[in-house]
Each structure stands twice: as C-alpha cells, then as structure tokens.
Amino acid sequence: MRLGDLERAVMDVLWDRSPSAAGGLTVREVADVLAERELAYTTVMTVLDRLAGKGMVEREREGRAWNYRPAASREAYIAQLMLDALDLAGGAEPEPGRSAALVRFARSMSGPEAEVLRSALTDEAADRRR
Amino acid sequence: MVYVGHFAAAVAACHVTAQVLLRSRWTWHLPRAALVCWQAIGLAFGLSAIGLALSAGLSPYAQGTGTALRRFTGDLVGGQLPADLRLHHLALVAIGLGVAAVLLGSTAHSLLTALRSQRRHRDLLDLVARDDPAAPGALVLDHPTAAAYCLPGMRPRVVVSAGTLNLLGRAELAAVLSHERAHAEERHDLVLLPFTALRRALPWLAWVRAAQDAVALLIEMRADDAARQLHDDAPLAAALRRFADAPPRVAPVGALGLADRHLDARLQRLNDAARPPRLRGATTLGVAGLLLALPICLFLS
Fold first, then answer.
1. pLDDT value at position A102?
2. pLDDT more than 70, % of chain A
3. C-beta neighbour count of B130 within 10 angstroms
4. CA atoms of B236 and B15, how far apart (whole Å)
5. Measured on CA atoms in the order B232, B234, B236, B239, is the torsion positive or negative?
6. In Å, how far is A85's CA from the nearest CA of chain B?
7. Cα A107 from chain centroid?
8. Other CB atoms closer than 10 Å to residue A56's CB: what's the count?
9. What are the backbone dihedrals phi and psi of residue B131, each rounded to the nearest 5 degrees, phi first?
10. Which parts of chain B have pLDDT scores under 50?
11. What are the φ/ψ torsions at residue B160 (nearest 5 degrees)?
C-alpha cells in the first residue's frame, strides 16, 4: 500500500470518527478502525507523524498518549483547493508565483460564489482556534 | 562606447518588437511560434538590460563586454584596477550585476513560490480528491463550482470539480481534459514562469505586464489547438461558452475580468477559419532570433 493511500485512509478515519470523540483519536484507536488492513501500530504512528508534519492533523498530549484530530474538515480542504483552482487564494491581488502554480482551463467565478468559498475557509479557521 | 550603443539598441529593439507582437493577431493562429518569439524577446531583454549597465561601466577597457568583464574580474582579484576606471564606472558595473541578481532572484523566487504551493496543493489533493469514471485520467473535487485545471510537475494531475462534470457534456469534457493534458505535457507553467518573474521584477513596465498577459492567453490557445487535434472544434467551443456563461457573473475585478476577455478571444479564434499567416510568423521568428543573438554575441565578444 502506498504511503499516500495510507495517509488518506488515516485522514478518512479521523474525519469520520472525530466529531464524536471530542478530544480526537489515539494512535491505537486509529489502528483499531483500520484493523482489516493489518497495519502495525508503528506504521499508523509514522503516518500520523507525517500528517502532523504537513499540518494536516493536530495533536495534543493526554496522559501518556497523543490525541490526533484533523486540522480542518474535508470540506475546508476542498474549499482551499477550489480557491487555488479559481485563482482566488490571495484575494484581489494574488502573489504571482502562487497564481502561476496551476494552469486553469478558464476562470469563471461569480462574486457571491467567491464570497461563499472564502467565508467557508474563514469559518473553518475560526473553529480551529476555538 | 560602441558596445553600450549596441546594448541600448537591443533594449530598444526588444521594446519595439514586443509592442508589435502585442498588436499582432497572427499570433492567435500560430500560438506556438508566438510563444517562441516571446521567450526570445524576454531573454534578449534581460540580457541586454544587464549588458547595458555592465558595458557602460567597463568602457575604459575599450574591449568586448565579455573580454572586458574577464579582465575586470582579474584586475579586481589582483587589486590593480586601471587608472581611468573611476568610481562611477564601478557603480555602473554594480548596477549591471544588480540587475542580473534581481532578474535571477525574481525567477528563483517565482519558481520556489510555485513549487511550494504546488506541493501543498498536491498533498491536499491526495487526501480529498477522488477518481471518477466520468472523467477518466482526471481527479474530481466534490464542489459545485465549475473548475478545470492542471497541477503541473513531474507527475502532473488534471483536476475537474463536480460542478464541471454537471456543466459539460461527455464530448465537451473530453476536449477540456485534452486541453489540460496539453498544458501538463508541454510544461506551460515553465513557459509562463519567466514572464511572471519579469513582471514581479519590473511591475512598472507596461509592456512586461502586457507580455505576461499575452503569453498566458497564447498558452491557452496552444492547449486549445492540442485539444482540436484530437476532438472537433464544436465541443471545445461549447465548453468555453459554458464556462463563460456559467451564471451569475458579477462585474469582476482584476484577474477575473482578464479571464473573460481571454475566453472571448479564444472563442473568436475557434470560429475564424482563416489560413494561418505563416510568412508573418516566420518573419517575426527571424527577428526574435536576431534579437536574442545580438546580446549573446556582445557578451561573447
């Protein structure tokens, strides 16, 4: 199994289980959900470590174990990608290098839609600070 | 001083050629040739701007700029500069080297910024994008707004949103995917990069801004042509029209207004069956080649 697929599988677990487990999940809990894949505890820990390094998950120490939860919702990440895709990431005057990172078919984005996307992102950021 | 004159002439010629190219419409029919012209002009302009200050500073050597630069470096290391090389000469050499540093630095900065946001974008895509049999070879983002783009790189990805799948018919989607694959295969991100960097370094120069805009449009036209080789014109034109009409559109600012003008130009071109003006294209290619050869020869002299 590729590392990218593992990361995705682990994120899916966190996204699907996290809301009920308020404090997030431990490595053991994530490994238990992924039991059918027969992953070693250390593999799951490595993947979570990598995801934390990329800023995709946040962790908190609780007693002797770390609790992991997603840094943002799946929807928020899709919104971020869409902002990139529609060249709205930097606001009205995006940074040239960043804007040049993608090659788009066409940019068709109305003001209200742009606002909805942007506010979805800001809400998410606010949730995270809470 | 003869070298200063040559470099000054090269800068002026770049400026004039850029103006002509910006006004030409043959470029729309031969986007690939036009893109080559722009690359040559961009490079020639950068080299000439560096050479202009350098050659003025090195004029006491009364030799070709390349030779003079080598001797100057030797003298500088040896600590023995010629007597008639004054402070203002040194200042001019410093300006020339400064221009080189700014241009190279701007290119490196643009490249690094792009690479960084590409890596972040790729990481996120790997987590949330999905495959969909409706869009073979592409990734799908579950979002109702229409978007189609290419994430360039060693392993490029073509991405469309669920909104695009709803917006386009099967043939239209196939044309759009071919368009995006052409961007990826021909590395259009790297074609545009020097102009993004030039614009970043010289934001007050109107023709540089216009040139970046023109190159961005030509890239789209080139990718449109690649899609037309595999599909009929009609589905591509229909896809463009659907993106242009995706309602509701509010009077856009900045980049968005630009995109709209681009869509109109691309549509207009698809409807125009005129024969490509090869003679004018070849002439401009020749001129651009000479333009680039001039500063290179001056630096080698």
1. 76
2. 66
3. 10
4. 35
5. negative
6. 7
7. 25
8. 21
9. -80, 150
10. 247-258
11. -130, 155
- Residue A103 DSSP SS3: strand
- Using CA coordinates, name the residue in chain A closest to B114: A101
Residue A57 contacts residue A68 (beta carbons within 8 Å): yes
Task: Give residue for tokens 């200042």.
Answer: B91
Q: Which residues are registered as beta bridge partners of A62?
A: A65
Overall size of chain B counted in residues: 301
Global confidence as pTM: 0.84
- SS3 call for B101: helix
CB distance from A53 to chain B under 8 Å? no
Pairing mode of beta strands B130-131, A57-62:
unpaired
User: Contact at 8 Å (CB) between B82 and B72?
Assistant: no
Calpha distance A99→B130 (Å, rounded):
24
SS3 A22: coil
Contact call for A81 and B189, based on CB within 8 A: no
Asked if A25 contacts A67 with a C-beta cutoff of 8 angstroms, the reply is yes
3-state secondary structure of A69: strand
Q: Hunting for tokens 């961009």 — which residue is that?
A: B42
Q: Write down the residue that tokens 């100057």 correspond to.
A: B72
Two structure tokens written together for B197? 């960097």
* B255 with A94: Cβ contact below 8 A: yes
Give yes or no for residue A24 having a pLDDT over 60: yes
- Rounded to a whole number of angstroms, the distance from the CA of A40 to the nearest CA of chain B is 21
The 3-state DSSP class for residue A43 equals helix
Check B114 against A98: CB less than 8 A apart.
yes
Backbone φ, ψ for residue B76 (5° rounding)? -65, -40
Q: At what angle are helices B255-271 and B233-245 packed, to 10 degrees? A: 150
DSSP bridge pairs for B140: B130, B160
Picking from B110, B148, B179, the nearest residue to A100 by CB comes out as B110
Query: Distance from CA of residue B276 to its chain's centroid?
Result: 22
Taking the CA atoms of residue B78, residue B81, residue B82 and residue B86 in that order, the dihedral angle to the nearest 10 degrees is 180
